[in-house]
Amino acid sequence: MSKAVFVIDMQNICVGNNHHKFFKYDNEKLITSVNAVISKNEGNAIIYIKSIMKDNFINKLAPFKAYDGTENVELVESMKVVSDYVFKKYSGNAFTNPELKNKLDELNINEVEIVGVDGGGCIALTALGAIKAGYRVILNTNAIGTMFYKKADKYNKKLMKLGAEFL
User: In this structure, are residues 75 and 10 in contact, taking their beta carbons and an 8 Å threshold?
Assistant: First the structure.
């Protein structure tokens, strides 16, 4: 069984020193936990996924900006980066980027462990996308930051029914 670890949205805007005030995580603890998962899995593919906003009129009205090429979207400096596998997503589910699935197929991946932010958003949506694409899914709750608890509870119940494993 070949495994990949997805590190989702661990970007400056979400968990960096100057993160936007909207994002409320215990950044230091979360980064330490994510780094521990990365260290434990260095023999597996570590895939970093960055959330990018499209530069359009609607997003210009958003309270925060995460446009491609800006410091906000860069991976947080204190996180371990051990591979060049970095993929962009423009919606919650990382599987909306076909390049991700192509890379997983190339690496013969059939299991994904997911860490990062947010448990009630992109983590859950990507986990659902992974299950739909035929992957075994592990959500490592020790290394997942959550602000949207009600949504996370709803998604987690659905994910459990679909066979996702929670650590």
Answer: yes
User: Cβ(50)–Cβ(75) under 8 Å?
Assistant: yes
Paired strand residues for 139: 114, 166
Give the separation between CA 32 and CA 160, rounded to whole angstroms. 26
pLDDT tens-digit series, residues 61-118? 666 667 677 777 789 999 999 999 999 999 899 999 999 999 999 999 999 999 999 9
Output the CATH code of domain 3-166.
3.40.50.850
**pTM above threshold 0.85:** yes
Tokens standing for 93?
């589910």
* Rg (the chain; Cα; Å): 15
C-alpha to C-alpha distance for 112 and 46, rounded to whole angstroms = 10
